[in-house]
Amino acid sequence: MKASTTPHHRIFSSIVVITLWLLLWQGAYLVVGEDLLLVSPVATLQRIFQLMGSGGFWQIVFGSVGRILLGFAMGLLLGTVIAAVTARSRALYAFFSLPMSMIKATPVASFVILALVWIRGTNLSAFIAFLMVLPLIWSNVHEGITQTDPKLLEMAAVYRLPRRAVLKNITVPAVLPYFLSAAKVGLGFSWKAGIAGEVIAIPANAIGTQLYNAKIYLETPDLFAWTAVIILLSVFLERLMVSGINALARQVNRLAEQEVPK
Questions:
Q1: Strands, E, within the chain: which ranges?
Q2: What share of the chain is helix, strand, coil (3-state, %, to 5)?
Q3: 167-186 exposure pattern, b = at least 16 Cβ within 10 A, e = fewer
Q4: What 8-state DSSP symbol labels residue 170?
């Protein structure tokens, strides 16, 4: 019989794991013995605090986060709309499935290079984030719609429930798990792809640009510091997304439990 894991136990376990990996990092630093190749955890942390104290740090962070989240939100919206349309028409599904498959199969670097012909470098990360999440949301939401229990839909038709009631009490609860799963995965894809797009496009005031400059000028502490910032922001955005998703799920469940209007 498995013992239940308390929140305090999970926090303690996470601290132990992180500490062990930091010790391994420090050990590797001592073995290498060259700051140009590998920076210590302490030096990385010190550089992060130095960057945070500079005037342009937060402008760079908020600029990259804002652009990537904008593309992510656009992908969520358009992917959901296309899924709702293609779920009603096989012809439209066949029409959209080809470009969606092509988007999923094409490397991010190829999209970035092609997009630079038409899109300014500043807006490129939003476009790349949009492309990364679009096919993922489309395929999952389409699957959720098509997997909706036909008996429930038949019952709704027999009782002549309004379309709004069917949507609120049957369709949305059935599709929501598919949507939430795709949104969680899509956020990570969008974030990493957006940063990669910035590294290639080199726009002003962007995290990816800082990574590129650190590599060009051999500023290894900056390279490690900005990488750590990217990881920390990824964790924060994922936690924020999960909190928002859980709140949305609770709201949908409350609405579904209400009396169906006649």
A1: none
A2: 80, 0, 20
A3: ebbbbbbbbbebbbebbeeb
A4: I
Task: Using alpha carbons, select from 236, 243, 138, 140 the residue that is nearest to residue 191.
Answer: 236
30-69 CB burial, b ≥16 within 10 A, e <16: eeeeeeeebbbbebbeebbeebeeeeebeebbebbbebbb
Check: CB of residue 108 under 8 Å from CB of residue 132.
Answer: yes
**Tokens linked to 242:** 């999960």
59 is written with which tokens?
């402008």
Q: Cα dihedral sign for 84, 90, 93, 95?
A: negative
161-206 per-position pLDDT tens digit: 777 777 777 777 888 888 888 988 899 889 999 999 899 888 888 9
Our measurement of the distance from residue 58's CA atom to the centroid of its chain's CA atoms, rounded to an integer in Å, reads: 20
* Distance set, CA 110 to CA 119, 147, 175 (Å): 14, 34, 32
Residue pair 133/190 in contact (Cβ under 8 Å)? The answer is yes
Q: Is 254 exposed, middle or buried (0-12, 13-18, 19+ CB in 10 A)?
A: exposed
- Long-range contacts of the stretch 211-218 (C-beta < 8 A, 24+): 218/36
pTM of the model: 0.84
Give me the DSSP letters along 28-75: HHHHH--TTT---HHHHHHHHHHHHHSTTHHHHHHHHHHHHHHHHHHH
